[in-house]
Amino acid sequence: MDIGSILRTPSTPLSGPAYPHGPYRFVSREYLNITYRTDPDAMRAVVPEPLEVEEPLVRFEVIRMPDSSGLGDYTESGQVLRVRYQGEPADYIHCMYLDNGPAISLGREASAYPKKLGKPRLYTDSDTLVGTLDYGALRVATATMGFKHGTLSEQEAAAEITAPTYMLKVVPGYDGAPRICELVRSRITDLTIRGAWTGPARLQLFEHALAPLADLPVREVVKATHLLTDLTLPRAAIAHDYLG
């Protein structure tokens, strides 16, 4: 294989890359979001500079993605922290757990999504929307919400997920020293809100050494939303180079 062909390959192995070139379009992408207030010191301890914590709000999310271009069908869960960057409200993705190898590889290699293998699930149990996250054989989170108790406007729903989003990209060199250490930025585009609802909600987080969501404890549930969307995730861009 010549150098030009190598450079056009999105990933390895060359004969069957882990993921295709984008863009990545998500159809019928369904969210269960529970925003809660946490301990401010615990949140400041995990938010990287130059991001700033103004109010200690965390969004626990479970996302069902049955139709993801190039990636297929999978479910994802994690924590998104409300921050500010250069005076602008923003989100910082703290952790993500999912059940799809190509999506994990793409997120970590081609962007900066902090993805690990996990077993999230989003389903309806009678009159309750339920989101769970298992790490290995152990439960680390259970979220429940009343199913479609109230509606949200498209503007309210879009505001829930379209803030500028920041992630930390850390890649060591072969000597073990940092080779890439960047804060990167992305933002959802081409968003269609197909449905948006709210309702009463509860969230339980369970202690785990390697999936430590409970390190950001639930002090108060602020709101819960259930969204059905179509959207595109564009490429990320560098916001801050820690090695520059």
TrEMBL record:
<keyword id="KW-0456">Lyase</keyword>
<feature type="active site" description="Schiff-base intermediate with acetoacetate">
    <location>
        <position position="115"/>
    </location>
</feature>
<dbReference type="InterPro" id="IPR023653">
    <property type="entry name" value="Acetoacetate_decarboxylase_bac"/>
</dbReference>
<protein>
    <recommendedName>
        <fullName>Acetoacetate decarboxylase</fullName>
        <ecNumber>4.1.1.4</ecNumber>
    </recommendedName>
</protein>
<dbReference type="InterPro" id="IPR010451">
    <property type="entry name" value="Acetoacetate_decarboxylase"/>
</dbReference>
<keyword id="KW-0704">Schiff base</keyword>
<comment type="similarity">
    <text>Belongs to the ADC family.</text>
</comment>
<dbReference type="Pfam" id="PF06314">
    <property type="entry name" value="ADC"/>
</dbReference>
<keyword id="KW-0210">Decarboxylase</keyword>
<comment type="function">
    <text>Catalyzes the conversion of acetoacetate to acetone and carbon dioxide.</text>
</comment>
<dbReference type="InterPro" id="IPR023375">
    <property type="entry name" value="ADC_dom_sf"/>
</dbReference>
